[in-house]
Amino acid sequence: MAVKHRVSRRSRSRSVGISDVAAAAGVSTASVSRFMHDPMRVSPKLRDRVEAAIKELNYIPHRAGRALASRQSLIVGAIVPTLENAIFSRQVMTFQQNLRDAGYTLLLATSEYDPELEFRQARVMLEHGVDALMLVGQKRGSEFYEMLERASIPFITTWIYSKNSIHPCCGFSHETAMKRVVDYVVELGHRNIGVVTGFANVNDRVAARLKGIRKALKEHGLELMRDKIAYSEYTFDAGGEALARLLEKGERPTAIVCGNDILAAGVLTEARKRNIKVPEELSVMGFGDLDIAAQLDPPLSTVRTPKAEIGEAAATYLLNSLEGRKTESRIEVDIKFCWRDSFGRASKK
Amino acid sequence: MAVKHRVSRRSRSRSVGISDVAAAAGVSTASVSRFMHDPMRVSPKLRDRVEAAIKELNYIPHRAGRALASRQSLIVGAIVPTLENAIFSRQVMTFQQNLRDAGYTLLLATSEYDPELEFRQARVMLEHGVDALMLVGQKRGSEFYEMLERASIPFITTWIYSKNSIHPCCGFSHETAMKRVVDYVVELGHRNIGVVTGFANVNDRVAARLKGIRKALKEHGLELMRDKIAYSEYTFDAGGEALARLLEKGERPTAIVCGNDILAAGVLTEARKRNIKVPEELSVMGFGDLDIAAQLDPPLSTVRTPKAEIGEAAATYLLNSLEGRKTESRIEVDIKFCWRDSFGRASKK
DNA sequence: TATAGTTGTGTAAACGCTTACACGGTAAAC
DNA sequence: GTTTACCGTGTAAGCGTTTACACAACTATA
């Protein structure tokens, strides 16, 4: 059934290579190569000739050749779930900037929260010979880590931190973060607390946050009932709908703790639509501190996560590893609780 | 005892190559290569042996070798100004997804709106042998385009459209878009219009939008005075400050037209801070329709730009070019005007 | 039966670079 | 005036693929 048709061959014209430069300059390719890496390693006379030849021929070195010969691609890979979320795009951006400053280039893929796709992308990256790899989260099959192991390249998992982590990681404990949030929420008098969260099965961070919530509640003798959790996609509208579902069941919560700011913004909008006053009647808490959080009305209480810092720290770790420098492989970053107007004391009945 | 280990050098151990597989399977490397590209091209017997050998050895093909021999890297590059803005990250994401589905991988760099940096990054991409390249905007020195010309790879400029464009492009006319906006703004009775915009010198899209504004005003016998324009960085706060500057000078405008939604959001926040009622006393118009636009209070009027569509169209164009298919090289995408509550008729004095 | 295709496989020469090694020349040490 | 060291350069063997070409073994055709 598959109709095989011949794809027109691309032009195969040789491009200007190092040997052309060598010939034009009347030197050996070795000398040109040396010049490329450190002009001071060749004599001034030769230097000038090579320089002239390069300019003359518009020579652009071909890194595939270099990669083959030197076993270094100068490429670093990153696989993130999505770029729709400012969280990851900010992280990727600083990651890339730091790599670039060190002479590396970024190969980027998204996994769309699909483990299988993530695995395939990782494999492709290894085929491309990436010198290092940045990942998000740690939950993946052992064959994934075994593959990395065999490739023996440094890698780091981000948005995860645990001092006993088996793998290099850079982030914070989502569990602790959320526990602290809920501790405070309870302190503010809230007893009936609703949760709007992403789907925990695909994402270890979501699961950890839920765990933190449960832990805090338990310590205060409370329990997170099933009908107080609404799972949702990461969109504004879905966040609003999640609130709607929560409100349909039982007594209205006095506080909603959300898995991220997108969901919280949706909740805020839905609350306004229903004339529920925030925070008087309903307190709302986000997570992540996107730029928009402070622009919402009322400004959203949330947890600030250092997206850029994570990208930078990940780059630093990988670069250190590549250079053979000793570095801490479990990096904890600071988070900050931002209590803004969307969250207040529980209304007294 | 005497363990002689040179730590500084990176491990140079040969990895499993195609020749190892060939040896293990008792066939030639050519056959393995053929198997890799199309298993049906080799006999069943040989197929099984090769398959077994590959699994046995955990063989991962090395694309640098392939790139060298076949003159195709299966890598496509993209250079965008930043990923902080959802505009570009969304575009990059769909671009990447479409490439991936076609077997290509994305090499990504940011230029931070710096032409020089963009040029250097482009050069690095060519060194990596990208098969194609996506860029944002068209304003760059001729040496840039000459370099691309010499590399003779397909490329496309995005967020730009003109039916006479010299270069392949995919986007819309910012000039026309803004002209239509202002036409309507004037129709709504506004005569005193302020503009908050990014810096036009670094960005051809900004310049085009300003041109559109001026053109529209001129047709209505109006003029954009210098003191009605505030230039600003692309941050919420800077947008607010820009409004502040505008308000200090002369009579207060009845409408503010912004270069993007971030600036508009900043303007909205600043207006609220000053107790200026939107839209009764001041109408505000954004550009771009970020997700947040509809969540703001009041919901922001803006121009919806198809970010994902641009990424996809760019990918499609490049893939078509790579496969030698004939395609339109100037692609216009639709924009949509979203009139929400932040914009209304000019208040009658 | 002779001839011409077809199919499956192997051989070996690239592809563009790096780098171990060799070598001649000059400078420093004796 | 040797010897020793070092420096700058060239030679050539890879690095892991692809692919043009050759060839043997079939199959189809006349």
| Overall pLDDT score of chain A | 93
| Count of alpha/pi helices of chain A | 12
Order of strands, widest sheet of chain A: 2-1-3-4-5-11
Largest sheet of chain A: 6 strands, parallel
Structural class of chain A: alpha/beta
CATH classification, class level of the largest domain in chain A: Alpha Beta
The helicity of chain A comes to: 40-55%
The count of DSSP E runs of length 2 or more, i.e. the number of strands of chain A, is 12
Largest interface (CB within 8 Å) is between:
A-B, 63 and 64 residues
Low-pLDDT sequence parts of chain A: 1-11
CATH architecture of the largest domain in chain A: 3-Layer(aba) Sandwich
Note down, in words, how this protein is organized.
- Chain A is α/β, with parallel strands linked by helices and 349 residues long.
- Chain A folds into 3 domains: 44 residues, no CATH class; 129 residues, Response regulator (Rossmann fold, 3-Layer(aba) Sandwich), CATH 3.40.50.2300; 131 residues, Response regulator (Rossmann fold, 3-Layer(aba) Sandwich), CATH 3.40.50.2300.
- Chain A is built from 12 helices and 12 strands.
- Chain A has a 6-stranded parallel β-sheet, with helices on both faces. In chain A, strands 7-6-8-9 form a 4-stranded parallel β-sheet, covered by helices on one side.
- In chain A, strand 8, helix 11 and strand 9 form a beta-alpha-beta unit.
- In chain A, helix 1 crosses helix 2.
- Chain A starts with 17 loop residues before the first helix and ends in an 11-residue tail after the last strand.
- The N terminus of chain A is likely disordered.
- At the A-B interface, helix 4, helix 5, strand 2, helix 6 and helix 7 of A face helix 4, helix 5, strand 2, helix 6 and helix 7 of B.
- Strand 2 of chain A pairs antiparallel with strand 2 of chain B, so a sheet runs across the interface.
- Chain A binds a DNA duplex (30 and 30 nucleotides) through helix 2 and helix 4.
